[in-house]
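DM from R.C. (forwarded with permission)

"hey, sorry to bug you on a friday — could you get me a structure for this? deadline for the figure draft is monday and I only need the backbone to look sensible"
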Amino acid sequence: MKRIAFFCFAILSTVFLNAQTLDELAAVRKGNTAYQQAEKLRAEAMQLMEKGGEMNTRAANEKFKEASKLYQDAEISYRKGMANTKNYSKANYNLANTLYRQEKYEDAGNSYKYVAEQKENDKSLRAKAYHNYGNSLLKQEKYKESIDNYKNALKLNPNDKETKYNLEYARKKLQQQQQQQQQNQDNKENKDNQDKKDQQQQQQNQDKKEDKKEQQQQQQQKQQQQQDKRQLDALQQNERQTQKKVAEEEMKKGGKAKQEKDW
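My reply, with the result:
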């Protein structure tokens, strides 16, 4: 899949007419300078990474580190530039750019959102803000929300090819996410069903085991009863034979035969 092309953030270096203090203006200009230097170093690092090789990779990493420090400096300067006047749309936009480069996507998105929703801002700035807000959401895998913001950007700038491309990309990612979520749900349901079947099977096996044990106990009890009966019958038979012999002996002697026991 073709890599997503993010909007190239343009630093707005114009003087903010609604600035209230010279210190704020100076801080914003300082932030612009740091950001521009960081962007240059980042571009050089990306070129070195594309060339490949150990030396280029090492040099690129050094440039990335320098750029990261400059992005942090730019963020500090932009925040100072809004110390008193926090509703600078252009300062908020530039601040959002520095936050985005530092991968602080949620914070960047909040600043882009503020700029985009200020209807007094010109359409071009608002369109860029909506686009970049969509990018911030895309980085957070909030695809549905990113789609909404790309659509808002296109309402203000219908011919923006970058936004159109990102919109289609976000739609594909949303579809993949939904498919993955559905698959995960199906897998969970299948697992739950299988676990339920396993539990039922275990219970059935346990019931069969207990039934078998009970049958064995009944069989043993029955065998014991039969054995007890045979022993009793044998004792009764021996007793009758003994009485019969005694009776015969007494009859021979002319005595009266004893009655057999009534068992």
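R.C.: lifesaver. The chain is about 80% helix and 0% strand.
me: no worries. Residues 1-19 have pLDDT under 50 and may be disordered.
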